[in-house]
Design brief:
seven-stranded parallel sheet; about 350 residues; alpha/beta; four-stranded mixed sheet
Protein backbone atom coordinates (compact mmCIF):
# COMPACT_ATOMS: atom_id res chain seq x y z
CA UNK A 1 0.00 0.00 0.00
CA UNK A 2 2.42 2.61 -1.24
CA UNK A 3 2.05 5.60 -3.50
CA UNK A 4 5.38 5.19 -5.23
CA UNK A 5 6.85 2.45 -7.37
CA UNK A 6 9.37 0.07 -5.77
CA UNK A 7 12.03 1.62 -8.00
CA UNK A 8 11.32 5.16 -6.74
CA UNK A 9 11.16 3.96 -3.14
CA UNK A 10 14.47 2.14 -3.57
CA UNK A 11 16.04 5.32 -4.93
CA UNK A 12 14.83 7.33 -1.91
CA UNK A 13 16.10 4.63 0.47
CA UNK A 14 19.53 4.74 -1.16
CA UNK A 15 19.57 8.54 -0.96
CA UNK A 16 18.66 8.64 2.73
CA UNK A 17 21.14 5.87 3.51
CA UNK A 18 23.78 7.98 1.77
CA UNK A 19 22.69 11.00 3.81
CA UNK A 20 23.17 9.10 7.06
CA UNK A 21 26.59 7.96 5.89
CA UNK A 22 27.49 11.59 5.13
CA UNK A 23 26.56 12.51 8.72
CA UNK A 24 28.87 9.88 10.22
CA UNK A 25 31.10 11.37 12.89
CA UNK A 26 28.93 14.47 13.24
CA UNK A 27 27.05 15.82 16.22
CA UNK A 28 23.54 16.82 15.20
CA UNK A 29 21.72 19.12 17.62
CA UNK A 30 17.93 19.32 17.56
CA UNK A 31 16.15 22.19 19.30
CA UNK A 32 12.68 21.00 20.19
CA UNK A 33 14.22 17.56 19.94
CA UNK A 34 11.85 15.96 22.44
CA UNK A 35 8.81 16.71 20.30
CA UNK A 36 7.14 14.55 17.69
CA UNK A 37 9.29 15.29 14.66
CA UNK A 38 12.45 15.88 16.69
CA UNK A 39 12.28 12.57 18.54
CA UNK A 40 11.52 10.70 15.30
CA UNK A 41 14.52 12.32 13.61
CA UNK A 42 16.70 11.57 16.65
CA UNK A 43 15.71 7.91 16.49
CA UNK A 44 16.64 7.65 12.80
CA UNK A 45 19.94 9.45 13.33
CA UNK A 46 20.93 7.51 16.42
CA UNK A 47 20.28 4.18 14.72
CA UNK A 48 23.81 4.81 13.49
CA UNK A 49 26.23 4.58 16.44
CA UNK A 50 28.67 6.96 14.73
CA UNK A 51 26.23 9.91 14.79
CA UNK A 52 25.88 11.82 18.06
CA UNK A 53 22.53 13.48 18.78
CA UNK A 54 21.86 16.32 21.23
CA UNK A 55 18.24 17.07 22.12
CA UNK A 56 17.63 20.57 23.47
CA UNK A 57 14.09 20.96 24.80
CA UNK A 58 12.05 22.38 27.67
CA UNK A 59 9.94 19.17 27.60
CA UNK A 60 6.69 21.08 27.17
CA UNK A 61 5.83 18.43 24.57
CA UNK A 62 7.62 15.28 25.59
CA UNK A 63 7.88 12.24 23.32
CA UNK A 64 11.14 10.93 24.82
CA UNK A 65 10.79 10.49 28.59
CA UNK A 66 8.77 7.29 28.37
CA UNK A 67 10.66 5.95 25.35
CA UNK A 68 13.95 4.08 25.06
CA UNK A 69 15.56 6.90 23.07
CA UNK A 70 17.49 8.37 26.01
CA UNK A 71 18.97 4.94 26.79
CA UNK A 72 21.04 5.11 23.60
CA UNK A 73 24.69 5.90 24.20
CA UNK A 74 24.82 8.47 21.40
CA UNK A 75 21.76 10.50 22.48
CA UNK A 76 21.96 13.27 25.08
CA UNK A 77 19.12 15.43 26.40
CA UNK A 78 19.81 18.98 27.57
CA UNK A 79 16.82 20.59 29.19
CA UNK A 80 16.44 24.26 28.33
CA UNK A 81 14.53 26.89 26.41
CA UNK A 82 15.50 28.51 23.10
CA UNK A 83 14.82 31.89 24.71
CA UNK A 84 17.73 31.20 27.09
CA UNK A 85 20.64 32.02 24.81
CA UNK A 86 23.32 31.06 27.30
CA UNK A 87 21.92 27.58 27.89
CA UNK A 88 21.35 27.18 24.16
CA UNK A 89 24.95 28.09 23.39
CA UNK A 90 26.16 25.44 25.83
CA UNK A 91 23.96 22.78 24.26
CA UNK A 92 25.01 23.62 20.68
CA UNK A 93 28.72 24.01 21.47
CA UNK A 94 29.84 20.80 19.77
CA UNK A 95 27.24 20.66 17.04
CA UNK A 96 28.26 20.27 13.42
CA UNK A 97 24.65 20.35 12.17
CA UNK A 98 21.61 22.01 13.75
CA UNK A 99 17.93 21.35 13.13
CA UNK A 100 15.83 24.08 14.74
CA UNK A 101 12.40 22.61 15.48
CA UNK A 102 11.52 24.39 18.72
CA UNK A 103 8.22 26.24 18.41
CA UNK A 104 4.81 26.84 19.93
CA UNK A 105 2.56 24.27 18.25
CA UNK A 106 -1.18 23.79 17.85
CA UNK A 107 -3.77 26.30 16.68
CA UNK A 108 -5.50 26.54 20.06
CA UNK A 109 -2.20 27.09 21.89
CA UNK A 110 -1.12 29.75 19.40
CA UNK A 111 -4.40 31.61 19.74
CA UNK A 112 -4.17 31.57 23.53
CA UNK A 113 -0.50 32.63 23.62
CA UNK A 114 0.17 34.89 20.62
CA UNK A 115 2.94 36.93 22.27
CA UNK A 116 4.93 33.91 23.43
CA UNK A 117 4.36 32.30 20.01
CA UNK A 118 6.10 35.21 18.33
CA UNK A 119 8.85 35.39 20.96
CA UNK A 120 9.73 31.71 20.57
CA UNK A 121 9.71 31.93 16.78
CA UNK A 122 11.51 35.25 16.37
CA UNK A 123 13.85 35.47 19.36
CA UNK A 124 14.37 31.71 19.54
CA UNK A 125 15.41 31.48 15.90
CA UNK A 126 17.61 34.56 16.20
CA UNK A 127 19.32 32.92 19.18
CA UNK A 128 19.96 29.72 17.23
CA UNK A 129 21.36 31.58 14.24
CA UNK A 130 23.49 33.85 16.44
CA UNK A 131 24.96 30.88 18.30
CA UNK A 132 25.70 29.11 15.02
CA UNK A 133 27.34 32.27 13.69
CA UNK A 134 29.50 32.51 16.83
CA UNK A 135 30.59 28.91 16.29
CA UNK A 136 31.57 29.77 12.72
CA UNK A 137 33.53 32.81 13.89
CA UNK A 138 35.37 30.58 16.37
CA UNK A 139 36.49 28.38 13.49
CA UNK A 140 33.95 25.63 14.12
CA UNK A 141 32.63 23.96 10.97
CA UNK A 142 28.82 24.25 10.91
CA UNK A 143 27.78 22.00 8.04
CA UNK A 144 24.08 22.91 8.02
CA UNK A 145 21.40 24.83 9.94
CA UNK A 146 17.82 23.83 9.14
CA UNK A 147 15.04 26.15 10.24
CA UNK A 148 11.52 24.74 10.46
CA UNK A 149 8.90 27.06 9.03
CA UNK A 150 5.26 26.14 8.33
CA UNK A 151 2.84 25.57 5.46
CA UNK A 152 0.61 28.21 7.08
CA UNK A 153 2.71 30.90 5.40
CA UNK A 154 0.53 30.31 2.32
CA UNK A 155 -2.64 31.48 4.07
CA UNK A 156 -6.17 30.11 3.78
CA UNK A 157 -6.09 28.83 0.19
CA UNK A 158 -3.02 26.97 -1.02
CA UNK A 159 -3.39 24.59 -3.96
CA UNK A 160 -0.21 23.10 -5.44
CA UNK A 161 1.73 26.01 -4.05
CA UNK A 162 5.43 26.25 -4.83
CA UNK A 163 8.15 27.81 -2.72
CA UNK A 164 8.19 30.77 -5.10
CA UNK A 165 4.47 31.52 -4.80
CA UNK A 166 3.36 34.56 -2.84
CA UNK A 167 2.92 34.02 0.88
CA UNK A 168 0.02 35.50 2.85
CA UNK A 169 0.60 37.52 6.01
CA UNK A 170 -2.99 37.43 7.26
CA UNK A 171 -4.97 40.23 8.86
CA UNK A 172 -3.51 42.00 11.88
CA UNK A 173 -5.62 41.15 14.92
CA UNK A 174 -6.34 37.56 13.87
CA UNK A 175 -4.30 35.49 16.34
CA UNK A 176 -4.43 32.46 14.02
CA UNK A 177 -1.90 34.09 11.69
CA UNK A 178 0.55 35.08 14.43
CA UNK A 179 2.37 31.78 14.00
CA UNK A 180 2.54 32.04 10.21
CA UNK A 181 3.81 35.63 10.25
CA UNK A 182 6.56 34.83 12.75
CA UNK A 183 7.61 31.71 10.86
CA UNK A 184 7.83 33.59 7.58
CA UNK A 185 10.10 36.07 9.35
CA UNK A 186 12.37 33.22 10.49
CA UNK A 187 12.72 32.11 6.87
CA UNK A 188 13.95 35.58 5.99
CA UNK A 189 16.33 35.46 8.95
CA UNK A 190 17.75 32.11 7.89
CA UNK A 191 18.18 33.23 4.28
CA UNK A 192 19.87 36.47 5.32
CA UNK A 193 22.36 34.62 7.51
CA UNK A 194 23.17 32.57 4.41
CA UNK A 195 23.43 35.65 2.20
CA UNK A 196 25.41 37.88 4.57
CA UNK A 197 27.54 35.41 6.52
CA UNK A 198 27.71 32.35 4.26
CA UNK A 199 25.93 30.16 6.82
CA UNK A 200 24.61 26.97 5.19
CA UNK A 201 20.95 27.46 6.06
CA UNK A 202 17.85 25.68 4.76
CA UNK A 203 14.16 26.32 5.50
CA UNK A 204 11.59 23.52 5.57
CA UNK A 205 7.83 24.03 5.26
CA UNK A 206 6.10 20.88 6.59
CA UNK A 207 2.58 20.08 5.43
CA UNK A 208 0.43 18.34 8.07
CA UNK A 209 2.73 15.72 9.55
CA UNK A 210 1.28 12.72 11.41
CA UNK A 211 2.29 9.27 12.57
CA UNK A 212 3.43 7.13 15.52
CA UNK A 213 4.95 9.15 18.35
CA UNK A 214 2.78 12.23 17.84
CA UNK A 215 2.24 14.23 21.01
CA UNK A 216 0.12 17.30 21.63
CA UNK A 217 -2.78 18.30 19.44
CA UNK A 218 -3.87 17.96 15.83
CA UNK A 219 -6.76 16.48 13.90
CA UNK A 220 -5.38 12.96 13.54
CA UNK A 221 -4.28 12.84 17.19
CA UNK A 222 -7.74 14.01 18.27
CA UNK A 223 -9.68 11.72 15.92
CA UNK A 224 -7.76 8.51 16.65
CA UNK A 225 -7.77 8.82 20.43
CA UNK A 226 -11.47 9.61 20.51
CA UNK A 227 -12.35 6.87 18.03
CA UNK A 228 -10.50 4.28 20.10
CA UNK A 229 -12.24 5.48 23.26
CA UNK A 230 -15.64 5.59 21.52
CA UNK A 231 -16.04 9.32 22.17
CA UNK A 232 -17.42 11.79 19.61
CA UNK A 233 -14.96 13.11 17.01
CA UNK A 234 -15.28 16.91 16.76
CA UNK A 235 -15.11 18.47 13.28
CA UNK A 236 -15.08 22.22 12.76
CA UNK A 237 -17.98 23.53 10.67
CA UNK A 238 -18.91 21.10 7.86
CA UNK A 239 -15.51 19.42 7.53
CA UNK A 240 -14.99 20.50 3.93
CA UNK A 241 -11.48 21.84 4.70
CA UNK A 242 -8.91 20.06 2.53
CA UNK A 243 -5.49 18.90 3.74
CA UNK A 244 -2.57 16.89 2.38
CA UNK A 245 -1.19 14.56 5.06
CA UNK A 246 2.48 13.56 5.25
CA UNK A 247 3.60 10.50 7.23
CA UNK A 248 6.42 11.00 9.71
CA UNK A 249 8.88 8.66 7.95
CA UNK A 250 8.57 10.72 4.78
CA UNK A 251 9.43 14.04 6.37
CA UNK A 252 12.38 12.46 8.18
CA UNK A 253 13.66 11.40 4.75
CA UNK A 254 13.26 14.99 3.59
CA UNK A 255 15.17 16.40 6.58
CA UNK A 256 18.06 13.98 6.11
CA UNK A 257 18.32 14.95 2.46
CA UNK A 258 18.19 18.67 3.34
CA UNK A 259 20.97 18.12 5.87
CA UNK A 260 23.35 16.70 3.30
CA UNK A 261 22.37 17.80 -0.22
CA UNK A 262 24.60 20.57 -1.59
CA UNK A 263 21.68 21.95 -3.61
CA UNK A 264 19.66 22.55 -0.43
CA UNK A 265 21.78 25.42 0.88
CA UNK A 266 20.06 28.79 0.79
CA UNK A 267 16.75 27.23 -0.23
CA UNK A 268 13.30 26.64 1.23
CA UNK A 269 11.37 23.43 0.61
CA UNK A 270 7.78 22.25 0.79
CA UNK A 271 7.81 18.81 2.42
CA UNK A 272 4.50 16.98 2.21
CA UNK A 273 2.51 14.38 0.31
CA UNK A 274 0.04 15.88 -2.17
CA UNK A 275 -1.29 12.43 -3.05
CA UNK A 276 -2.64 11.95 0.48
CA UNK A 277 -5.24 14.70 0.23
CA UNK A 278 -8.72 14.47 1.79
CA UNK A 279 -11.36 16.64 3.43
CA UNK A 280 -11.45 16.71 7.23
CA UNK A 281 -14.90 15.10 6.98
CA UNK A 282 -13.44 12.18 5.03
CA UNK A 283 -10.47 11.89 7.36
CA UNK A 284 -12.74 11.55 10.40
CA UNK A 285 -14.83 8.90 8.66
CA UNK A 286 -11.72 7.00 7.54
CA UNK A 287 -10.40 6.89 11.08
CA UNK A 288 -13.71 5.67 12.47
CA UNK A 289 -13.70 2.91 9.84
CA UNK A 290 -10.07 1.89 10.34
CA UNK A 291 -10.40 1.76 14.15
CA UNK A 292 -13.61 -0.25 13.92
CA UNK A 293 -15.19 2.36 16.18
CA UNK A 294 -18.81 3.32 16.60
CA UNK A 295 -17.89 6.80 17.74
CA UNK A 296 -20.14 9.51 16.29
CA UNK A 297 -18.85 12.52 14.37
CA UNK A 298 -20.04 15.88 15.63
CA UNK A 299 -19.89 19.09 13.57
CA UNK A 300 -19.37 22.20 15.66
CA UNK A 301 -19.32 25.86 14.71
CA UNK A 302 -15.83 27.39 14.42
CA UNK A 303 -15.92 31.16 14.05
CA UNK A 304 -12.17 31.71 13.72
CA UNK A 305 -10.26 31.89 10.41
CA UNK A 306 -9.23 28.47 9.13
CA UNK A 307 -7.11 27.04 6.34
CA UNK A 308 -9.64 25.87 3.77
CA UNK A 309 -7.23 24.31 1.25
CA UNK A 310 -3.63 23.17 1.73
CA UNK A 311 -1.94 21.09 -0.98
CA UNK A 312 1.79 21.49 -1.72
CA UNK A 313 3.79 21.30 -4.90
CA UNK A 314 6.91 19.31 -3.97
CA UNK A 315 8.62 19.52 -7.35
CA UNK A 316 11.52 21.55 -5.99
CA UNK A 317 12.23 19.02 -3.23
CA UNK A 318 12.05 16.22 -5.79
CA UNK A 319 14.48 17.97 -8.10
CA UNK A 320 17.04 19.34 -5.63
CA UNK A 321 16.82 16.79 -2.80
CA UNK A 322 15.60 13.61 -4.47
CA UNK A 323 12.68 13.67 -2.01
CA UNK A 324 9.69 11.40 -2.64
CA UNK A 325 6.91 10.61 -0.11
CA UNK A 326 5.94 6.96 -0.26
CA UNK A 327 3.50 6.14 2.58
CA UNK A 328 -0.09 6.60 1.44
CA UNK A 329 -2.72 7.88 3.84
CA UNK A 330 -4.52 4.62 4.58
CA UNK A 331 -1.32 2.74 5.37
CA UNK A 332 -0.04 5.65 7.45
CA UNK A 333 -3.30 5.81 9.41
CA UNK A 334 -3.22 2.06 10.07
CA UNK A 335 0.32 2.30 11.46
CA UNK A 336 -0.62 5.35 13.53
CA UNK A 337 -3.76 3.74 14.95
CA UNK A 338 -1.74 0.67 15.94
CA UNK A 339 0.75 2.90 17.78
CA UNK A 340 -1.99 4.83 19.60
CA UNK A 341 -3.66 1.61 20.78
CA UNK A 342 -0.36 0.46 22.27
CA UNK A 343 0.47 3.89 23.71
CA UNK A 344 -2.93 4.30 25.34
CA UNK A 345 -2.43 0.88 26.91
CA UNK A 346 0.96 2.00 28.24
CA UNK A 347 -0.61 5.21 29.59
CA UNK A 348 -3.20 3.15 31.46
CA UNK A 349 -0.47 0.93 32.92
CA UNK A 350 1.54 3.97 34.03
CA UNK A 351 -1.57 5.43 35.63
CA UNK A 352 -2.22 2.22 37.54
CA UNK A 353 1.40 2.13 38.72
CA UNK A 354 1.15 5.75 39.91
CA UNK A 355 -2.08 5.09 41.79
CA UNK A 356 -0.53 2.00 43.36
CA UNK A 357 2.49 3.95 44.53
CA UNK A 358 0.33 6.74 45.95
CA UNK A 359 -1.69 4.16 47.86
CA UNK A 360 1.46 2.95 49.62
CA UNK A 361 2.46 6.37 50.94
Amino acid sequence: MSDTSPRRRSAVARATSGALSALAGQTVALTGGAGFIGSSLARRLSDRPDIRVVLYDNLHRDAVTHSDLLERHNVRLVRGDVLDKGALAGALAGATSIVHLASIAGVDTVMQNPVRTMMVSLQGTMNVLDVAHSLMNAGHDVHRVIDFSTSEVFGRYAFRVTEGDATSLGAVGEARWTYAVSKLATEHLAWNYFKQFGMKTVSVRPFNIYGPGQVGTGAIHHFIRRAIEGRPLTVHNDGSQIRSWCYIDDIIDGILLALTSDGAVGQSFNIGNPRSTVTIHQLANDIVRLTGSRAPIEYVSWDHPDVELRVPDIGKARQLLGFEPYVDLELGLQRTIEWYRAEMGREADRGQMTRGTEGQR
